[in-house]
Amino acid sequence: MKPLHRSLASRLAAVFFLLAAGPHLAAQQVVQEVRHGRVSVDRIWVVDAAGGGDFTDIQPAVDAAASGDLVLVRAGDYTGFEICGKGLTIVGEGEATDIYGASVVCDLQVEQFVVLRSLFLHHHFASPKPGAPPILLLEDNAGTAWIEDCTITAFSPWEDVVRVINGSSTVLVRSELTANSTIASSPHVQRHALRATDSSVYAFETDFVAQGYSGCFGCPNTHEGDIGALVEEAYLYAAGCTFQGGQGTARVCLGSLCISSPGDGGPGLRVIGMEADSLSSSFAGGSAGDNSPCPLGSPCSNDGDPGVGVEGPIEVIPLPTRTLALDGPVRSGGSAQLLANCQPGEAVWSVYSDIPEATYIPLYFGPQLPAPPVTLVFEGIADGTGTLDKLVPIPPLGLFSSFEVSFVQGLFFDALANAFIGSPSTLIVVD
What we know:
The chain folds into 3 domains: about 1-40, no CATH class; about 100-315, no CATH class; about 325-430, S-adenosyl-L-methionine-dependent methyltransferases. Helix content is about 5%, strand content about 45%. The protein is built from 3 helices and 34 strands. A hairpin with a 6-residue loop joins β29 (about 355-360) and β30 (about 365-370).
């Protein structure tokens, strides 16, 4: 597989070759090379709701960008966006990058990837109606959809949070997916923080939470609570994640008569059709629905049951998680903060690549997400608390490069040279 955009080294090599021909001829040739696309010039598009960038909303920037470009979103309020058949990196700059409305990533080809980092995706409170799309839909992607440091929340009683359909590789890193509502709906719709079908999902340090009241106003039937994650004919790898089911529907009264008993709590994780792998993740079912007495009457005859933490086939690996995170975006010529957590005294390495694709290495458990060819960098030895916190110097980007996106993952070795794969991160460098 070739990367979507050529690496910094390959682009500089092309420029240096041209400059070797002499300054005057080289300048003309460089212009021709850029015009004909033989030297790629990826671009940064700045989105600023206050008017200080190229656009004031994300979708116009997506439409203008070419595959491989970066969209830098400053703090502000924005509407949902759709990326189809185009590889892009969209990263929030600031702590208040709010995106209201449904967003879609679809039709990525094998060599394409989309990175969404540091974004808050949600709807206005209870604004959608029954049949509303999920907050984030990832559909028909042969390439990789990478979600990192994002908060994605559904406030209405009708919508899923993240829906993955026919996705070759979906990566979730240090994110929060929450189905949160205190409003009863009619008709009842069971929601999911994550619902994946015919897909492969790799999750690290991510919370899948069905939270709040899962009620149905006037429903005559008992309903199960919302589900933290539903995986149907799909593969899930989860390391250091949390799965929480939602509360079952409350009892329904008609005067003093109980016409519907409380519902069971929803499962934290439900797996149908394929086995999931879990490394040091936690699972909790939701509580049973409210069974308080009807007015002037008695409680319903049947109580709901609490939900189960896990339902379906799953292999739980008894290993502690190892994590690695890089802050971003960072400036060219500056430094990035690297934070690794593992076992005390372990050697910490970083695996770098321009390509995100799951690869399984027989020496250690879990997927390596930076795909070959890779570069290994020794970062240091974890202290007595199992922590390595350091600054990583970032070299200047050089000619014809306004940014670089690299995929990084932690690789850890103990005193016996046993190897362990840790969580991944992106390194986004801007000029």
